[in-house]
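We close this part of the discussion by returning to an individual protein. In the encoding step, the backbone of a single protein was reduced to a row of integers, each denoting a local shape. The sequence in question and its structure tokens are set out directly beneath this paragraph.
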Amino acid sequence: MYAYVGCRTTKERNAHGRGLKTYEILPDGEWQELQCLYTEPNPSFQAVDQEGKFLYSVHGDTTQVSSYRILPDHTLEHMNTVNIGGRNPVDITVDRGNRRVIVATLQGGTLCTLNRREDGALGEVVARYTYEGKKEGDVSTIHQCLWDQTRNYLFACAQSRVHGFGQMRVLRYNPENGTFTQTSQFLSRTWDEPRHAAMHPNNHWLYMCEEKGNKVLYFQFDEQNGQMKALQELSTVPETVTGYSDASEVMIDPSGQWVLVSNRYTDSIAVYHIDALTGYLKNTGFYPCLGRTPRFFCFAPNGLCYVANEDSDTIVEFSFNSSTGELIPTHRIIQTESPVCVVFQ
């Protein structure tokens, strides 16, 4: 198993990462660094194409996106970097047909659709979809681009950041030209600021976290008409927490029975059980992430959970008990500078 880790690099981000890292995960579970590749500042979120041959990375706080060939030894070879125009690309994904790459830009407030060239490199921007703001020239800042299980629809969370509207939209994707058409919209409460979402394997239950509101919301999704309906919200921090906290990432465990949400600054992971009949959530506990600022976490193919603690320069490994919802430290900690995303292959 191999892992690609995006690490912020700029002093403006209080970062001291050195680039995009490649690790081999050995049979005994140890992580061995194979490569640290620097092309542009702040390689952050990544995506692998449908055939597992290429990796694409956004460069935070810039307008750049890069493509890499995955070599036989799983190290990366830089292919090209393109300027997409929208500032601060924050998420990236590949469409079902492996023809195009979708990028969400935060300050740009735009989803950009790029062609993939025959050699796997990034091509030109062929379509843009912008979330309008409160007045002409303003935008709502898009924070994620998440497919449903069919990859016919894209969920895109956005924040108001004063000049826009906190929201999540469902967008129907046209694979012929890379454009999007809105089918449903959820407007959040003022300042709650939707950030990321996760889709259940059944493609009907959707869970979204709100960064400033410190909430997790449950939606039902109808894939026949692209409609979603909000049904529940719960806090991502205990009722005894009164200080500052930012929810950052939301994931569903491999068994499909649990939702997990990370909280920065309170440095914790909230765990919720999913009712198997209704999809509603019930909180079962809060667990320390054993580091500072868990901007990202995910489950690896081996079922273990890895938490990227940006400000303590660590990726912390946990096992997860799918019967009880317990997040259990394995005591393996990978030292890496300013990690913000981990992608496994």
